[in-house]
Amino acid sequence: MHTKTIYSSLLIGLLFSSLVYAQEKGIPITVSAFNQATSMPFSELLTSPIHPGIAVATELNYSKQPKHSRLFQTIGASYYYHRYLNQAVTVFSEMGYEYRFKPGIELSALLGVGYMRSFRNATEYAFENGSYSATKNTGTGRFAPSFSLETGYYLHPKSITSLKLFVRYQVWVEYPFSLGFIDLMPHNNLHLGVKFFIGANK
Amino acid sequence: MKKIFVVSFFALLFTACEKDEVIDPKAYSCNFDFVDNSASHPKAQQYQAKLDEIVKKGTVGIMMSVYHPNSIQWLGASGKADISNNVPMQPCMISRMGSTIKMFTATVTMMLYDENKINLDEKIAHYLKGSYIGKIQNAETATIRQLLQHSSGIYNYIQNPKFQTASMNNLKKEWHAEDLMSYAYNQDAYFASGTDVRYSNTNYILLGILIEQIEGKPLHEVFEQRIFKAFGMTKSLFASKNPVPHNIVRGYIDLYSNFKITESTYFSGWDYYTADGGLISNPYDMSLFFQKLMNGEVVNPKLLAEMLTWKTPHEQDPDFFPIEYGLGIFKMKTPKGDVYYHSGDAIGYYANMIYITSSKSVIVYAVNSNYGKLDEWVSTKKAIENILETVW
User: Fold this and answer.
1) What percent of chain B has pLDDT above 70?
2) Chain A contact for B192, CB < 8 A?
3) B260/A126 Cβ within 8 A
4) What is the number of structural domains in chain B?
5) Closest Cα of chain A to B263: distance in Å?
6) Distance between CA atoms of A114 and B34, rounded to whole angstroms?
7) Please, which pLDDT band fits residue A200 given cuts at 50, 70 and 90?
8) Which of A69, A84, B64, B354 is the most buried (most CB within 10 A)?
9) Residue range of the domain that includes B316
10) Set of chain B residues whose Cβ sits within 8 Å of the Cβ of A132
């Protein structure tokens, strides 16, 4: 309980500081749609069937006047639906490094931590008092560290509030998956997203 | 707006949960085509109590056949065949028997050998010319006998983490031989062919392709004609004929190791078309086959003796009984004595067929739940000891 409180406080603190700082230039928002897959890291880019997901996040810049590169932190939430296994909500924060090239192309790497709540999407039966009965689907908690590589394009490279389109390949691990059986499960998400600013002064 | 979002989100979570199929319990109804005298077996209560105990430990349902020569055969069951539709398990029902098919694949291979259609000591590459031969290490050097005995050294595709994650990603995918074997491509062989033994499903996929090629017909027809019909296994079929029969008991998995299970009846798609898995049967049929095999009624005694020629692995699994490898059959050294056996897993199913060498007894049991915490009382050393203690 104590750990959870600290963890929640950290996340809320990060979000708050991010939003306050961002007020000067508007709040950066990234929205991405992604395909989630259980897959070994970097083994496959496109997988089927599609397990759709969506992620929404904001960012805090650690570099005051980013030119070619910036260090930043994200905080956000995501949801995905695995058609045969589960659906999951994750809150996460990532530390990122972005390098911009002159024509507006950027490359980024992000290292993240997350807390995932996974809900089975089939009827779940719990074993109690010697027999099975349908149980409430309250979900189970998971630790979800991640590593992402991204490339994107700023539509107006000279503007600090430019719209950005990006593709992100994210590798993440679900832990614990099934302790003593399959301890951790590797996943890949392939994101297609956009970054924009809300409340920015034109 | 915020309220609408929250309500919509939870509505999505709720509606995205699929309910288990509604099945009329009558769909599972079954009978034996003989008079079942199990109730009058002198140890009927003792055997039934053992099955009930296993169910009380967390197994969803179990069927068992206990055959001792010169005694009545006991057939029993406990638990559920289908939780959602509240259908009790019965011994005449059918279930998925996974890798136990390997004993049948080996038997058919021995029949082909007996008919001079193949030579056991010829390389598999002599018969199979598919491009997969050059992509699987040791496939060019391994003989048919080495495939049967798992002494080929060929990599087991199931152990490839890329296969494990891919099958998890698409749990309803139906896998064919080359799909599965591709996960053994360019993988290091475990050892030079013939120098050790190590279990590999890839061996039996190759044998299945060989059988289909020699016989010129699909595996399910070969098994049906040569085994199921020939030896009175009226409730048995190979999955490729009908991957999920309407009356198959539902399978369940404890995927997260927490005694919370979900249905997995449609998740065994890598067990439908290849000769390393895919048997659908029941303990009575399997007992019948094992009895006849060991009596020399399926293959002649000389060929049976070849099947029962053992090789010991250099390394044993410290968590299991010491085992030795025959051709499609294993020998297990238990504290009570030696048994011959083959077990099998599918997703949500487990089965084991055991022949007690000292008494010529045959014990077969099948359950419709596995993985996670459920394996402890079904497939582990402790579980087998527990069952043998009662039925020996």
Assistant:
1) 95
2) no
3) yes
4) 1
5) 7
6) 60
7) confident
8) B64
9) 36-391
10) 60, 80, 83, 261
Q: What is the pTM of this model?
A: 0.91
Sequence-separated (6 or more) residues with CB below 8 Å from residue A202? none
- Please report, for chain A, the start and end positions of each structural domain, with discontinuous segments joined by +: 2-198
A67, amino acid identity? K
> pLDDT tens for residues B23-73?
999 999 999 999 999 999 999 999 999 999 999 999 999 999 999 998 999
B369 bridge partner residues: B252
DSSP per-residue string spanning B242-277? -SS-TTBPPPEE-TTSSSEEEE-TT--GGGSSSTTS
CATH 2.60.40.1220 fits A2-198, yes or no: no
Which is nearest to B276 in space by CA: B284, B268, B288? B268
User: With contact defined as beta carbons under 8 Å apart, do B342 and B99 qualify?
Assistant: yes
Would you call B151 helix, strand, or coil by DSSP?
Answer: coil
Give the 3-state secondary structure of residue A47.
Answer: coil
CATH number for the domain that contains residue B357: 3.40.710.10
Instruction: Write the single-letter amino acid at B137.
Output: Q
Give residue-wise pLDDT tens across range A25-68.
789 999 999 999 999 999 888 888 999 999 999 999 997 666 78
CA distance A64 to A38: 38
Q: Nearest-5° angle of CA A144, CA A138, CA A82?
A: 55
Residues of chain A with C-beta less than 8 angstroms from the C-beta of B18: 121-123
Q: Which chain A residues have a beta carbon less than 8 Å from that of B252?
A: 125
Distance from CA of A183 to the nearest CA of B (A): 9
**In whole angstroms, what is the distance from residue B51 CA to residue B56 CA?**
9
| Chain A residue at shortest CA distance from B173 | A49
> In A, which residues are within 8 Å of B84 by CB distance?
123, 134
Nearest-CB residue to A43 (from B83, B162, B171): B162
